Amino acid sequence: MKWLKRLVLLFAVVVAALAIVPFFVSLDDYRPRIERLLAEKLKEPVKLKNLRLAGLPLPHVIIDGIEIGKADVKVGRIAVTPDLLSLLTDTKIIRSVDITGLVLTQRGLDRIPLWIKTDPKAKPAAFTVRVQTVRLDDALLQLQKASFGPFDARVAIAADGAPERADITARDGKFKVTIKPAGEKFNIDVQAKGWQLPVGPSIVFDELLVKGVATMKEARFGDVKAKLYGGTVAGRSSLAWQDGWQLTGDYTVNDLELRDLVPLFSPETRLTGRLNAKPVFSAKAARPEQIGNAMKLDTPFNIRNGVLHGIDIQKAATSLFTKDSSGQTRFDTLSGHFAMDRGTQRITSLKVASGSLAADGNVTIAPNKALSGRINAQVKAGTVASATVPLNVSGSLDSPYLLPTGASMTGAAVGTTILGPGVGTSVGATIGNWAGSLFGKDDKKK
What residues pair up with 203 in beta bridges, in sequence order? Predict the structure, then answer.
């Protein structure tokens, strides 16, 4: 048993030495030189707050308070753990690089390709360095208009320097990405639950599953499935960035409740109901943040059992002399075709059906949210036959108006006088519009 006691004693001495050595060995004298070398390489000022050696659990170097550029990149701490025996060979092996508290800004992200670019005129290094594992903890990506994180990441690296696997996980556990190499490509698997989109509209996904393949030039997501706002979305999309940024996609939308979703895209619009649609979209822009303004989208749509707030089509058709931007239109179905091209939105083949009301028409929404178009409203009143009243659309999304055409106004005045308000107004408006069209004096259809 003496050998066991000696072994335990030896182990205790080694542990004590590893714990005490950092108090006597300081690396901080090398800090200015390292800052200067890094600044020359990156062409940016580099600051290191502290540089020291630690002995446990394995000997490693700790760098505290790293800052690159004008706070473009900040790191709380980096711990580098080498394979000590490999330091005596031509291939220096780094067991792990642990990065804690990384904050990467948009400018820093844009400059990474320049920082890692190799100099073809540089002399070959006297030795090679191979890193086995990179770990990120509590990292944050700060874009111009959004942020992603905090998140953790784990990257395993093969002997030839190529990544074997990368896992990125949000610290709240709501989002996870796994990336695995497959030849010249990378397989991407995304899983999310209760996760909010960090860029663009603040859409919340109850569940999101994405499978795709990426290269250094593009990413294709051939299988996208999501559950959100009581419905489902499924489809595919692709993003390329070799010559500018190009985004394309097509999806099938089933049974989405619009009450909380619509305000994320258009705060001025209040619309409820269940949406079915098949959007096809594309965009091409010089920079990723310009994609939204360059978006082209085209889709048929059908909304069931909803309410359009801020406008009362039936009231507008039976009370033509009142300019009103209040009220609401309840409908059983609201369908049509929606197209958007660089900010201009057009709704064509619009049809609204609900009890005594039926309407059809076309509406255009300008980039400044101004409205224009024509809606033909049919209102049933008891046993009286349906009367069609043409209404011009004007105003804006936050204050829409439905106003009659000139001929409709004249006919409505006569009808109201003879038959009274409501039925007389709408019947008279219909006759007036027919007469105006017959003699060519009606307003031009918008």
Answer: none
Lookup: tokens for 31 = 């800090």
* Lowest model confidence (mean pLDDT) among 54-63, 126-135, 292-301, 354-363: 54-63
What is the bridge-based pairing of β-strands 91-100 and 128-131?
Answer: parallel
Average pLDDT over residues 52-69: 76
Query: What tokens appear for 102 in the block?
Result: 């990384």
Lowest mean pLDDT among 60-69, 237-246, 297-306: 60-69
Regarding pTM above 0.70, the answer is: yes
Asked which of 77-91, 263-277, 361-375 is least confident by mean pLDDT, the reply is: 77-91
